[in-house]
Amino acid sequence: MIYLVEHFYSIQGEGRYVGTPSLFFRFGGCNMKCEGFGCIEKAPNGDAVLGCDTVYAVNKEHFAQNWVPIEHEQDLLQVLELYDLPEGVDVVLTGGEPLIYANDAIFVRFLENLIANNHRVTFETNASIDVDFEKFSVYKECVFALSVKLSNSKEPLSKRVRGDVIFNIAQNAKDAFFKFSIDADSINLGLEEELGSILMHSQQTSVYCMPLGGSREEVEANTEPLIEFCKAQGYNFSDRLHIRIWDMNKGV
Ligand code: SF4
Q1: Residue 69 to residues 2, 29, 72, 82: CA-CA distances in angstroms?
Q2: How large is the average pLDDT for residues 172-177?
């Protein structure tokens, strides 16, 4: 079953298309937890839940009341009717990890409809779940932001870095770019080597580095060290505009 946690029309806040008006679909569920990111969110039952900045779209046990089951692609397509959207507006599929639904027939039909209507579809993915480009050719028309998780996520290496998946997506997608969330401490702990061991799986793919943080304060603290790192390594710096503008607010 596909679960949709939220949808909103905003601007893309990070990565290659920063500033682009985009309709976001946030799907529920992820194959990781990323407790190393240290974000804590209070669940409706009062529990403090540890995870990433979208833990409410990862942890179904605590946040299930906001997860809407999707039984037909029309349930997703109807969302586009709720907004006054420019024709062919960018659509961003995020989560959680949207590719946990990559083989679901409803999900694939939803994608096919978006592409047929000239939307640019971008996946925000942790790039650890493979995509069958031959069986589902619609994925060849999609863009993939490869947000491969680093050791600061505290996920096991074999789970978070799948060279075969990175290579497959980068080779077959319409476009792909790496997008990393980086904190100042990681930079000081030899980040170049860690990034290098990921980038080797697709050396022509461009790299965007964003300051780690679920709040404006955290993002600001990591920004200047990261800019210096990007200058030294020749990577693109990407702001996290939505957090800088709206801080910890969701759905913006
Ligand atoms: S992979 Fe992404 S969505 Fe999943 S737990 Fe990690 S940061 Fe959160």
Answers
A1: 6, 12, 9, 18
A2: 98
